Amino acid sequence: MQRVLFIILLALMLTGLYAAWTHTTVEGNILILFIAALVISALFTTRKRFIPLEPKRIAYAIAYIPYMFYAIIRANFDVARRVVQPTIPINPGIVEVRTKLKSSIGKTVLANSITLTPGTLSVDIRGNRLFIHWIDVRDVEEKGATEDIVRGFERFLEVIFG
Question: What are the domain boundaries of the chain?
Answer without folding.
Answer: 2-44, 55-161
